[in-house]
Please model this.
Amino acid sequence: MASTMIKVDALNKQIKQHQAGSLYLVLGTEDHLINQVVSAFHGVLRPEERSMNFAQYDLTNDSLGSAIDDASSVPFFGDHRLVFLTRPFFAMSENIKATVEQDVSILERYLKKPTPSTILVIFAHTHKLDGRKKIAKLLMKHAQVVDVQKIEARQVESTLDNYLSQHGFQINAEARTLLLQRSDGDFSNIIDNLEKLFITASDKQITLPMVEDLVAPTLENNIFDLVDYVLHKNVTQALELYHDLLLNKEEPIKINSILLTQFRLLMQVKILTKKGLTQGDLTQVLKVHPYRIKLALQTARHFSMKDLKRAFLGLEENDYKMKSAQIDKQLLFELFMLKFADPVKQ
Model:
């Protein structure tokens, strides 16, 4: 178990009150919160001493021994040294490629007796460490753990409202919906997009045209629109969007693969909701981002299983043909769309 688990606000308070500890583990993958943590720790050092008393090491490339030697050194003309260690692959369950082998015992010894004048911060961009590993257990035991876990989908909208309120901005309902959609429901993506919108919204009002102009749709957003055009049998708009994706250098096989995944999800949602599963249940069972589940639920309820299955099987056939080079890959979606929309073949 961790000695202490703290939120970003608590970390800021520690640093402002000059009560920072010697060891921190930043655990989670919410980039917006991670950026806040980085800014907070940089506040420990005066600007003029950062070049002398700050160092950062990527543990997939840099020597752990050198990093700990740095952490063990006394600060130059200041009260603290600040050392960041990123990508501690040896404490994680993910398979991360590293160009160096690390002697983890060096870090194990340091954790048990850290240098008081150094603030050592280890950034583990993961949900949790590998609890089977000794070094992971020691990190959780000796370090203060800063919680930067992904903001859950059910909290994203309320967190967005609070963020807008804190900055004095307002957003109308249509703009809000599109912002969430084009950000894939991911809070860090939302914040990145809001920075552009804040600059434009001189009157503190964020409108739908602003979001349409400034927040570019991702490939997944475009695929969601493409699914909608397919199911509505809107051949013209489906082919226009498909050709736009090709002009943007997207590969036909990749487009088809994502379409297949989306239609598979729609069928799964359709079947499981009939069995009584809720949105929360679906997220757990299907291991899919809650925002994608929400959109799939909205779509699946309007279409029959027959249409969903027809589309899926047609795209599955395309996938086989693309991989076996039976026909020009770019033409396959066009042929599929014309066949799917043909009332005689339904």
Summary: The first strand starts at residue 4 and ends at 6. The chain has three domains: 4-147, 153-214, 219-345. The chain has a mean pLDDT of 91.
